[in-house]
Amino acid sequence: MKDIFEKNWAYRIMVILSLCILLVYTYLTNEETFLNYISGKFILDTRLIWQIGIFALLSLVLFYLLESALDYKSQNEVLKEYLRRIQSELDAERDSLKDLKSISGEKIIKLGSFIVTISDMAKELNSVLETAPLLKAILRKTSGLLYSERCAIFTVSKDKKSLHFVDAIGYDKDKLSHLDLSCDEKSGMLGISAGEGKFYSRAILYDDYNRRPILENDKIKLQFCQPIIYGTDVLALICVGQADEGLSDEYVIRILSTMANFGAVALTNTKLVEKIKDQSIRDGLTGLYNHQYFQQRLDEMLSEAISDRQPLGFIMIDLDHFKKLNDTYGHQMGDVCLRKLAHLLKTKAKKDDIIARYGGEEFVCVLSGLNLEGAAKLADEIRDDFKNTVLEFEDVETASTLSAGVSAYQPEKKKGMKKNALIRAADKALYEAKEKGRDGVVIAREI
Q1: Both 323 and 214 in a single domain?
Q2: Residues 80, 315: Cα–Cα separation, whole Å
Q3: Domain for residue 117, yes or no?
Q4: Statement to judge: residues 412 and 435 lie in one domain
Q5: Which is more confident, 237 or 18?
Q6: What is the rounded distance in angstroms from the CA atom of residue 337 to the CA atom of residue 361?
């Protein structure tokens, strides 16, 4: 208001002067004076006082109306100036946006591609419930986002000491699968990234004079390493051999961090699903596969063996006098006996073999690539080792024996074979071993 008053001071002076002239004119034209001397007395003329009061009141009203008109005019001018300033700023912003679109068009396109890819990945991850396919999906998406022709992904072992190859793009997969990679400086940048659970780039290590020698231990040519971490556990490692030259390090880091966050949650989910699935196909006491899963896998393995013309060995095992062991020492000692035999069978099995609890005190072994003689030799080793195994529970020690029947699919003798025939042949041989006094191995005669 002060600014407005100072700006319009001339109008106010003109109003005040006009009112003063009007008051003087009224006084001069009045026949009576303000104070008259009549008959020896001074008489106050109140008419003039009323005239002055009315003029003063009219002056205030007029001044107020003029003040309001001037304020309105001034405020209107201020508002117009403000609107002009806002319009000017909007025009400047509009010009800036046009410049931004022309300059950053390619970046906006890449950002759009990034969002679409992340959205696609989220949908894909929801449908992947196994670890290996999930890791391969992460690898493909990383390669696509970074426009990289060389990427690889590894998992970290349970003991956190070594790395295992899963898949790669642009690398020799066979070579990577045979590398001995540890989670330390001995495996270069790849190793320390997994060991420390931190993102590393070649530039970061090279700029650190004390850590630069680590790069000399690289077994794979890499530019970036990003661990996938859930909580404090390093689950896997995303490795990038090269990224698009137009991408900044900040952009690459953001992409890899996003992929790692997606991967951490997804991997945890797949591991939970796999754990539940594994529990559904395993025997609760021994940890071996259960009867249902054994039947399913035997079908698959026998079909593969017939197709590839490879032998398939089969052993059926039964504990001797198991009921007597339970009656004498209690069922808890019987549980110890079952777990000991299960552990022994696990140590004797190869990676592709299937060891299962057939039911009660019976066990079966499906042995890939093993012929009849080889399966019989293994069965006898198991029998001998178990005979010398000490069974102990609450300071009570004892021992037990087993009997085994052996059969096999032999491609040189038969083109094909039914699953039930393989089981029935081993079962008959097992019964014969029992009849011969137990603690023995019998090979099936007719297969």
Answers
A1: no
A2: 98
A3: no
A4: yes
A5: 237
A6: 9
Domain boundary among 47, 68, 94: 94
Structural domain of 216: 130-279
pLDDT band of residue 2 (cuts 50, 70, 90) is very low
Four-residue CA torsion sign, 200, 202, 204, 206: positive
Q: What Å distances lie between residue 40 and 33, 37, 45, 150, CA to CA?
A: 16, 6, 15, 125
Residues 250 and 300 occupy one common structural domain: no
Q: Does 34 fall in a domain?
A: yes
Q: Which entry of 77, 250, 361, 394 is annotated as an active-site residue?
A: 361
- 361 in active site: yes
Amino acid making up residue 92: A
**Separation in Å, CA 308 to CA 296, 354, 409:** 19, 18, 12
Q: Report helix, strand or coil for 79.
A: helix
pLDDT in tens, 158-211: 888 999 999 999 999 999 988 999 999 898 899 999 999 999 988 898 888 888
> 118 phi and psi, to 5 degrees?
-65, -40
Together in a domain, 67 and 179: no
Who's near 192: CB < 8 A, 6+ residues apart? 184, 185, 198, 200, 214
**What string of DSSP letters covers 174-201?**
HHHHT--EESSGGGHHHHHHHHHT--EE
Residues facing 201 on adjacent strands = 224
Strand pairing class (354-359; 312-319): unpaired
The closest of 326, 332, 322 to 395, measured between CA atoms, is 332
* Residue of higher predicted confidence among 163 and 53: 163
CB contact at 8 A, 286 and 357: yes
Instruction: Tell me how many domains the chain contains.
Output: 3
Amino acid present at 75? Q
Query: What token pair was written down for 319?
Result: 């504990």
- The Cβ-side half-sphere exposure at 309, using a 13 Å CA radius, reads 3
Average pLDDT for 212-216: 89
Domain assignment present for 111: no
108 in any annotated domain? no
**DSSP conformational letter for 211:** T
The CATH number of whichever domain residue 403 belongs to comes to 3.30.70.270
Assess whether 261 and 335 both reside in one domain: no
- Residue ending a domain, among 221, 245, 279, is 279
The Cα 196–Cα 76 span in angstroms is 67
438 and 307: one domain? yes
